[in-house]
Request: fold
Amino acid sequence: MNHDPLDEAADAHDAGASENSNENAGENAALRHRRIRSFVTRAGRVSVGQQRAIDELGPRFVLPYAPQHADWDAVFGRQAPRVLEIGFGMGATTAEIAAARPGDDFIGVEVHEPGVGALLKLIGEQGLGNIRILQHDAVEVLEHMIAPDSLDGVHIYFPDPWHKARHHKRRLIQPKFVAQLVARIRPGGYIHLATDWQNYAEQMLEVLSAEPALENTADGYAPRPDFRPVTKFERRGLRLGHGVWDLMFRRR
Ligand SMILES: C[S@@+](CC[C@H](N)C(=O)[O-])C[C@H]1O[C@@H](n2cnc3c(N)ncnc32)[C@H](O)[C@@H]1O
Reply:
């Protein structure tokens, strides 16, 4: 995945901003003063199967965004270790991990509609009961819907690398956001990141190492834990000699 699918859209966006339209000026102000904007809304084609999954399974497995703490025990109908995944893409990794860890519950957050449909399809095909989905900006979900000390783990796999230096401000893994994330992980809980972009891996290691509430479980980068499956893209990248870096930190 050594590409930045959203770069073009972001370039168009930045071009608009330099013309100083009110809308873009407003969003830039939001970027400066408030939160990271780590994605650009893309129009994606939802397949017939994905749409069917959204219609049939959406009401049960997709939660509406609301700016207040959710009662996750009530949502999942049980009390179990809870993992937040940010940006699950098409959800293949999410489904595989959830199937392998039936005792844990997974909150998957993704803005891209075809991805939501794809994961719902996998939930239906595999009869997975331990995933719920939010189709919303994860930065807002984290800020408003997740209580302090309530997560057992956080997964962020191959987040958009935002290759160009002037887009680095859009990267999710930055000190302020990591501090917000860590505050919602219970002591002893973990944060697991993976990327195939070396410059972002270095930023991840620097930011996580500098966060006083985290400790590294490895000496630098971590070996890929068995529970994270190797994705199709990753396998192809590895064949081509590209690197993949995992990071596994624990909350103190
Ligand atoms: C490069 S993809 C990786 C997808 C998947 N994790 C994988 O390993 O294949 C990054 C995903 O993160 C999603 N994303 C980025 N920022 C997000 C945010 N703030 N909230 C929710 N989803 C986000 C994007 O829509 C995209 O699908």
Notes: The beta strands are 62-63, 82-86, 105-109, 131-134, 151-157, 185-195, 214-216, 245-251. The chain is about 40% helix and 15% strand.
